[in-house]
């Protein structure tokens, strides 16, 4: 069943091929999963060079690590990140609101991690290149069409490429999504911006490897101390309207630093000190998630990751959902002989779960953007509610982090579907 060449297994004489659009998180993981399923992928990435040295950091949940392990990509990622086993939440007056574990662990003790975005991207990319996957940079997809027996992609540089199927892993502003369904919704602004930095030469209260989060009086702030003593922080200044990336880019870094300092004035947190100790503040971006995207695939094209269902960063699950998608898609294409039913099966297996996680992210957002009434009840009830939710080893987020993908489990039999780990 798990043949090295599923094309041959399904009656074809040659190995099936795939165009993977985008080399962020979902793209290289999909390439690894397709390769493992006996399909030959080529990745086409819009950026002319690998995007090194830019971007902030993100969490990969236990479920993301588990899914990476299914295609042997966990080790390179774990090697560049560090564990983040606990979350502690305060309000702007310094009142402790919650203190709870950041998911469970795998049988070998591995848990959720934090990693810089460039490190995550390069860990995945380097590993798939080492496995023989070709990546073409400077290839921005502008159109694609099905050709009967396959699919043809057109790029902004005038080039084209053909294969048996096309995987759109091209992120939240996906071009493939618009090709699959020109009426598909656009990304939805969630009401706050996102910026971050790395502060050096400063000690902050608390323990290393714990994510401290503060619902400040005006703005949300988070920080953690990395193993080398550098303090990683991020901020979510609320803003009612979507300024768009261009208007934000026009704000100078000095102006931006002054605005951030002002927004944390009076909060009982190290936010202002950390901002002052940060040489370079990472450019602020508007934050989006995706409304429901009705169509994820055609006969030979499919979207995965943020292209299909971007999750607000407040859920800490966007990367992990992208990884789960990519591995599940590989399994479907391995086990369902024809492309179109395999893509349909992928959607059935993924849609309910990712939409639930998107909803969780929106619910978490409300704590960041809510008015005085939301803040009053949050501060009053969160400590008690959190204690109750985590009482006796329970965890209300277990359904997210305990999700397990067993690569060897066949996809076709509903009784054997991937699901949550017990315990
Ligand atoms: C500020 C911020 C904080 C976040 N924090 C977290 C967190 O803590 N935890 C978490 O799990 N997630 C977090 N996320 C979300 C996470 O970054 C995304 O969910 C994840 O990167 C999605 O992976 P992807 O591969 O689908 O898309 P991306 O990582 O965006 O990759 C898409 C790739 O496609 C390329 N591309 C785009 N258009 C084209 C085209 N037309 N042709 C070819 N290539 C194209 C892009 O250049 C890019 O390389 C955060 C996101 C933001 C913005």
Describe this structure in words.
The structure is a single chain. With 423 residues, the protein is an alpha/beta fold. It has 14 helices and 20 strands. The protein has a 7-stranded mixed beta sheet with strand order 6-5-14-15-16-13-17. The longest helix is centred in the C-terminal third of the chain and has 31 residues, at 339-369. The two termini are 30 Å apart. Residues 1-11 have low confidence and may be disordered. The site of flavin-adenine dinucleotide (FAD) has 33 residues, from helix 2, strand 2, strand 3, helix 10 and helix 11.
Low-pLDDT parts are 1-11
Ligand inventory: flavin-adenine dinucleotide
Radius of gyration: 22 Å
Beta fraction of the residues?
Answer: 15-25%
Task: Please give the count of helices.
Answer: 14
Instruction: Give the overall form.
Output: globular
What keywords describe this structure?
423 residues, alpha/beta, 35% helix, binds flavin-adenine dinucleotide
Quick structural overview:
Helices cover 35% and strands 24% of the residues.
């Amino acid at each position: 069943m798990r043949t090295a060449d599923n094309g041959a297994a399904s009656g074809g004489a040659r190995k099936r091929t795939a165009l993977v659009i985008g080399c962020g998180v979902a793209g290289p993981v999909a390439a690894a999963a397709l390769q493992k399923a006996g399909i030959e992928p080529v990745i086409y990435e819009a950026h002319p060079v690998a995007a090194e040295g830019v971007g902030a950091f993100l969490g990969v949940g236990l479920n993301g690590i588990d899914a990476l392990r299914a295609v042997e990509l966990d080790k390179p990622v774990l090697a560049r990140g560090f564990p983040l086993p606990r979350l502690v939440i305060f309000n702007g007056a310094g009142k402790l609101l919650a203190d709870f574990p950041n998911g469970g662990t795998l049988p070998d003790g591995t848990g959720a991690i934090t990693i810089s975005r460039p490190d995550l991207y390069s860990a995945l990319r380097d590993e798939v290149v080492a496995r023989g996957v070709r990546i073409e940079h400077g290839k921005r997809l502008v159109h694609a069409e099905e050709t009967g027996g396959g699919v043809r992609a057109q790029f902004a540089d005038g080039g084209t490429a053909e294969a048996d199927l096309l995987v759109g892993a091209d992120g939240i502003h996906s071009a493939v999504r618009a090709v699959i369904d020109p009426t598909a919704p656009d990304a939805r602004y969630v009401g706050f911006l996102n910026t971050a930095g790395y502060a050096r030469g400063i000690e902050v209260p608390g323990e290393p490897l714990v994510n401290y989060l503060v619902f400040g009086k005006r703005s949300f702030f988070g920080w953690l101390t990395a193993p080398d003593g550098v303090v990683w922080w991020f901020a979510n200044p609320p803003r009612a309207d979507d300024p768009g990336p261009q208007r934000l880019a026009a704000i100078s870094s000095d102006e931006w630093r002054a605005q951030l300092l002002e927004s944390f004035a009076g909060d009982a947190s190290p936010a202002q000190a950390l901002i002052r100790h940060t040489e370079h503040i990472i450019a602020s971006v508007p934050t989006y998630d995706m409304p429901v995207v009705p169509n994820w695939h055609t006969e030979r094209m499919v979207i995965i990751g943020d292209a299909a269902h971007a999750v607000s960063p407040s859920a800490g699950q966007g990367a992990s959902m992208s990884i789960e998608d990519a591995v599940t898609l590989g399994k479907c294409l391995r086990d369902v002989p024809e492309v179109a039913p395999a893509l349909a099966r992928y959607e059935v297996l993924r849609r309910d779960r990712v939409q639930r996680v998107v909803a969780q992210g929106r619910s978490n957002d409300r704590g960041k953007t809510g008015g005085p009434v939301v803040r009053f009840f949050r501060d009053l009830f969160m400590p008690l509610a959190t204690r109750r939710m985590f009482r006796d080893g329970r965890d209300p987020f277990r359904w997210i982090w305990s999700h397990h993908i067993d690569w060897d489990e066949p996809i076709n039999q509903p009784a054997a579907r991937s699901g949550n780990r017990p315990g």
